[in-house]
Amino acid sequence: MIKQSVKIFLLGLLVGMSFSKVRGSDIPKKNKQPNIVFFFVGDMGWLDTSVPFYKEVTALNERYHTPNMERLAREGMKFTQAYASAVCTPSRVSLMTGVNAARHKVTNWTLIKDESPDNDDEVVKSPDWNLNGLSPIPNIPHTFFHPENLPLLLSQNEYRTIHVGKAHFGALGTPGENPLNLGFDLNIGGNAAGGPGSYLGIHNFSSTWKGSGNTLLDLPGLEAYHGEAIYLTEALTREGLKAVSKAVEDDKPFYLYLSHYANHPPREKDERFYQNYIDQGLNELEATYASMIEGMDNSLGDIMDHLEKLGVNDNTIVVFMSDNGPHPQVPQNLPLRGHKLGPYEGGIRVPLLVKWPTVTLPGTVSEDCIIIEDIFPTFLEMAGLNSLVNKSIDGQSFVPILKGEPSKSADRPLLWHFPNTYFSPPYSAVRKGNWKLIYYHVDQKFELFNLKDDIGESTELSNTNKIKTKEMAELMTKLLKETGAQMPTIIATGRFVPYPDQVYSLH
């Protein structure tokens, strides 16, 4: 009897030890909510990378050196038809809310409270848009009120939400200026600014070294790096690594929103990579831009290496995306036409890479159309918060695509709306299937393209395919009405620019 009791005791002890060992290792970790890293960059074009998103390798693919983007593409899924808004703040409000820019009405970039960056136009006037950006508090003029933003929903469901880098959600002096008001538990470097005063630590990341005295673009939480010979991208990366380490130490699932200011102006070289591009024969501007891209890619590698070092790589989703196309100052993303702020593919088509261990097959490619507001429901579903996914009004989760399931939205229409008189003439654009229609508000002109046959949007078809143009104009009108999109005012008459179907019915 004693021997039997001893055997039972020892068996129980071994089982207990085994259970204890399991509890601290693999099985529970697989059941944990996955960590999510959203590596979001500024002003990076579809082809500003050595990862080919086009069917052919382009000259820009050969110019830039982004080995860590290549690594992410090998380990995850590459999306060749991903889209954002044509300018930064609309994209950022959409990803936080799951709402299209036409509906949330933050249609241009924001900075100073109650001040619009829009220019005067002789023909039309911009609408009374939400120039103060996103707000978690109601009844603030010219803001889009949305209390249940993505980081808040994650924070309410066990996640530690970490904001590092560019915010640009709301104007100075409004609640949306501070990421901590929008659901983030930690904020390093984020405020109302769309770009830094400087990328250089020796200048305290400020423009005051130029003698301007302007501190509007100064960044919070980076004082420890002031005076150091360090590039902003590297400083933000170090802060991101520290925050992730602390979350893992505290056994908390984390959402790291690492939103690099690069590759947004000002153009300042990252000395770690600049000379290599000069040696290749690039001019100063080209080499500076290329060094900013490679510095950003180096940050991506540091993050991925750190996840492996901490032992959380297998339970961490990494998503890479850009907020809009490249600035007009830098090389055009040929064969794409256009650049940031414009309606052509060069302004709105962006790189998207997703690594989801054990879910997404490595080295896969998707041609499904994805748009920036899809981030909101996708991340909620990734986190296992399926009951919250329907809080997205316009975005659709692309988790099924990541799981290798057939797409259910092949003919889903995508809408862009920029009724602002800033840099580019105001416009609306819609894509459905291979067809894309652009409607210019000033002269009520249409442009129709078949993107399958003409990715460079060089052959305009509205006059030769009037049936498709009429169909797309009616679809665009339907979407503009459903979202309550604002139209500019025609100065001469005081009336709103007509909807596209009203104009095309006269053709």
From TrEMBL:
Keywords from the UniProt entry: Calcium, Hydrolase, Metal-binding, Signal
Database matches in PROSITE patterns: SULFATASE_1
Domain Sulfatase N-terminal: residue ranges: 34-384
Cofactors that this protein relies on: Ca(2+)
Keyword Calcium tagged: yes
InterPro entries: Alkaline_phosphatase_core_sf (IPR017850), Sulfatase (IPR050738), Sulfatase_CS (IPR024607), Sulfatase_N (IPR000917)
UniProt cross-references to SUPFAM superfamilies, sorted A to Z: Alkaline phosphatase-like
Top-rank taxon, per record: Bacteria
One GO MF term: metal ion binding
Family: Belongs to the sulfatase family.
Name recorded for this polypeptide: Arylsulfatase
